[in-house]
Amino acid sequence: MEKMDIDRLVKRMQGFSEHFCYGELSRILATYTPEGGIMVLGMTGEDPELWWGVEDLKTLQKALPGIKKDQGNLNFIFRYAGEWERVQKGMETISGWGYEPRNVNVGYFTKLANQGGEINSGPFHLLPHQEIAEFKKLEEEIFPDLKIASAELPGWCEDQNRFILVFRDGGEIGGFVAINTEAGCAFVRSLGVSSHLGGQGWGRKLMQAGLDRARSKGAVSSFLWVDKDNSRARKLYESLGYEQDPKETEAVFGV
Question: Domain map of the chain by residue range?
Answer without folding.
Answer: 3-105, 110-246
